[in-house]
Amino acid sequence: MGSEALQATKVYRQLLKAVKNHIGKEDHKRHFRDYITQEFQKNRGLLDLSSIQQKLKVAQNYTYLLNSVHHHKELLLSYNIAVDRSDEMKRTLGKSASSVGLQLPEVYQP
């Protein structure tokens, strides 16, 4: 049962990392992380090997989906295909500013 526990830990960490990177870590989006944590804790005592593998496969597939959707969106933005580029420009400027220790000011919108 040791290898399954290590695999579950690895999948759990990868899934939480994908959620943090692609969905966000703000408080109003915390329910995603809470649900994942709750599901992993609920299935901790599961003894059926096929059921464990099936649930880990679902978690791996969801991690893959999150990463793929994010990558696809970045490709669409880079190819400028019918997607608003203002968010990309804000993100690029924000990364540039933060790399030198600055923050972009908030834009006033009435």
TrEMBL record:
<protein>
    <recommendedName>
        <fullName>Complex 1 LYR protein domain-containing protein</fullName>
    </recommendedName>
</protein>
<dbReference type="InterPro" id="IPR008011">
    <property type="entry name" value="Complex1_LYR_dom"/>
</dbReference>
<dbReference type="Pfam" id="PF05347">
    <property type="entry name" value="Complex1_LYR"/>
</dbReference>
<feature type="domain" description="Complex 1 LYR protein">
    <location>
        <begin position="7"/>
        <end position="62"/>
    </location>
</feature>
